[in-house]
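Handout, section 3.2

Students often ask what a structure token actually looks like in practice. Rather than define it abstractly, here is a full record for Cytochrome P450. The first block is the sequence as you would receive it.
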Amino acid sequence: MTSWIGFYGFDVMGDLAFGQSFEMLSTGEVNYHISLMQEFLKIRAIFSRVPWAFRILQVTMLLNTSFNKFRLWMEEQVKTRMKNEPDKPDVFSWILSDYQARQNKTQQDFFNLMGECKLITIAGRQVKIHSCTWFKQLISTSDTTSSTLTCLLFELARQPDVFKRLQGEIDQCFKNYGDDIPGHFELSKLEYLQACIDEALRLYPPLPSGVQRMTPPEGLQIDDDLHIPGDTIVQVPLYTMYRDERLFKCPDRFIPERWTTRRELVTEAACFTPFHIGSFSCVGKQLALMEVRYVISQLARLYDVSLAKGQTPEAFTEGNYDTFTIRLAPINMIIHHRADSKSEISKA
């Protein structure tokens, strides 16, 4: 299931960003050039805490072979895309328009264009790149989408009672719209659906270690007894914070009701910021939520889910690890039509 949802993330990002899908859902296989990128990113994650070492080792064949192949493929995609404007504008259309409008273009301008292309592609693979530009933050939403969808389905498969309640809310929503399918605005008003999404984001934050920030030159005063010197890198691990029993009661349990009818289970709601806050918050938040709500609502309306025989919860939870973003272990699930959904399948 982890792979298929990853394919979905890539294909959607391809459609939105480049006007064409990577066709991974159709083929059931990882695009060769994407696999090169994934291989490179595994190595890069190891050196994320010592960037100076990464820059030194990047010049070696060990680190550079896969990435150079990926870079050449990207350059080919950009040049092809520049010659073939799609019928409908995609995200890359705006980036390309800005590039083409520049006077006296430099080689660095083209490198920047290539960088945007790389970020779009990497986004489909659950990697978020820090940047102050809105676009680089926007494309990282598929990071949140892929991991949240997988982890939410995992928890719903483990807890049939929760899934049944969610199905009831979604069934009622679709029933109210007859032959139509409710849009994003209508789905955003489903309280229990949002509670399930929030609980998945709490237990499995897409960025387990959080992000780094630098204190201002004058330093940062916290309460009366703690002063952090200026120009100091600080980091708050979200995974640890969200499972702190001082902040969340029963922190290791998936309880969507903590966001609805059992708010006493949340001691400090202000610390829950899966999309971050302030000037560096994720501008693609609504796009990510739109995707998650749509996919989960369609799956819950038409299907039941359960863990496959031999699939233990521990194999999934203990197999996940942090490569700046959460890298999910494989998980096998059974998805079958609901007994009461046959009349609804034609609407999907």
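Discussion prompt for tutorial groups: Residues 143-347 form a domain with the Cytochrome p450 fold (CATH 1.10.630.10). How would you have guessed this from the sequence alone?
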